[in-house]
Structure formats: C-alpha cells, structure tokens
Write a structure and sequence with these properties.
The structure holds two protein chains of two kinds. Chain A is mainly β. Chain A has no helices and eleven strands. Chain B has no helices and ten strands. In chain B, the strands form two sheets. In chain B, strands 1, 3, 4, 8, 9 and 10 form a six-stranded mixed beta sheet that branches. In chain B, strand 3 (32-38) and strand 4 form a beta hairpin. Classes of the chains: A mainly beta, B mainly beta.
C-alpha cells in the first residue's frame, strides 16, 4: 500500500513570497490533516478535512495560510505571503477512521524562509 | 489544549528494555493516549494507543496508570533502529463540531548505544 505522498521535499523562498505544498493521502482515507512542525517541537495541527469539507481550521493563520481539498482526495496548502517564522516542516497525514484516529504521515516538506 | 509531559531525552543500551514515561494529569475521561515515533527526516509513525487497559502489539507495550494520569511506553529490546523522538499524545474524540485531534507534546529523544 502506497503511503502519504508529499511534494516538494524542500523549498527555500524569501519572505513575502508565496509557496504551495501538495499532499496525496493513502487511497480511500477520508480524513486529511496538515501539521506545522517547528524545529525541536512536536507537530501542531493546522487544518483537518473530512472528504472535501473542513472539520477544524481553528489553528490556521487564515490571513496568510489557505488549504483546499477540492475533490476529496489530494490537497494543497498555500502560504501567501510567507514570513520568517513560517520556516518549519509541513506534514500531511491521513486517516481512514477519525474515531480511532490512527494517522499515517508523509515525510513532510521542509520550508526555509530567508 | 493541555499537553503531555515527557523527559527531553533518554539513553538506552541495545537489546535492553526501555521504559519511556509520560505524564498527562489533565487528560479527560474520553481522551485516548497515543504514542508515535519520528525518525530523522521522516514523518511521525504510529506505535500504539490505549484508553485504560494495558496494550501490547508487535512494536511495544503501553502501561497506563489506574488513575490515567501517567503512562509508560515499553520497548522490550531496543535496537539501533529504535533511536527516534517518541511522542506521547492526547487523542481527543470527534464532537459534533470538531474532529478528533492528536495533541503532540515535545517528545522524548531516545538514543540507543551499541
């Protein structure tokens, strides 16, 4: 079974530029999550989708971050404009059972904002 | 969201058992306790989870205190490949207006000596 795919693996941009990350979850997983992991910290949930609807985006900085999952499969996370403090690893995860909540993570995209 | 508390780092010798402690004194009665681990440059990987009873699987055992204020992840025989950051996580159940969440703490960095 293929795992969660994310791209790109690395991205370097300057502050105020825009950036987008892509995630393809495990086939058949209805729930998709985006996390931000700052160096030395545990991942922090940004947004959760159930199929193509948003379940929780309470921690998403909506003035600069946006995410979509239009067809209920793959998803993109965008930052516009980026700030220095957005430097982090952005992780995507998916789950087939939001009650059991066992999540499968991708390898992440490491973003450096200069 | 109240987080769990873990030692920042621990050391173990190869082929010896490892006991990784976690405090979660403010956990609610319906929160599950999950453990994930994260190897360098990878996303977190599910290890085990439980609610009240001790749990065993092929990777590890989870011992949960009777009052549920603490738990211990037990690796029965540590190998070099077990060197990782281990996260003890509060897992909340979904509600009518919010999805279930994994709330990560800082994690314990486990090093294994040959």
């Amino acid at each position: 079974e293929a795992g969660v795919a994310q791209s790109p693996r690395y991205k370097i941009i300057e502050k105020r530029q825009s950036v987008a990350f892509w995630c393809n979850p495990i086939s058949g997983h209805a729930t998709l999550y985006w996390y931000q992991q700052i160096l030395g910290q545990g991942p922090k949930l940004l947004i959760q989708f159930q199929n193509n609807g948003v379940v929780d985006d309470s921690q998403l900085p909506k003035d600069r971050f946006s995410a979509e999952r239009l067809k209920g499969v793959d998803s993109t996370l965008k930052i516009q404009p980026a700030k220095l403090e957005d430097s982090a690893v952005y992780l995507c995860a998916s789950s087939s059972d939001s009650f059991k909540n066992i999540q499968y993570f991708g390898a992440g995209t490491r973003l450096s904002v200069l | 969201d109240a987080k769990t508390t873990q030692p920042n780092s621990m050391e173990s010798n190869e082929e010896e058992p490892v006991h990784l402690p976690c405090n979660h004194s403010t956990i609610s009665g319906t929160d599950y306790i999950h453990w994930y681990r994260q190897l360098p440059s990878q996303g977190p990987e599910y290890v085990i989870h439980g609610l009240t009873s001790n749990v065993n699987n092929r990777m590890a055992s989870l011992a949960i205190a009777e009052d549920r204020k603490s738990s211990t992840l037990i690796l029965h025989r540590a190998t070099l490949r077990d060197a990782a950051v281990y996260y003890c996580i509060r897992a909340t159940l979904p509600t009518y207006n919010q999805g279930g969440k994994l709330i990560f703490g800082q994690g314990t960095e486990l090093s294994v000596k040959p």
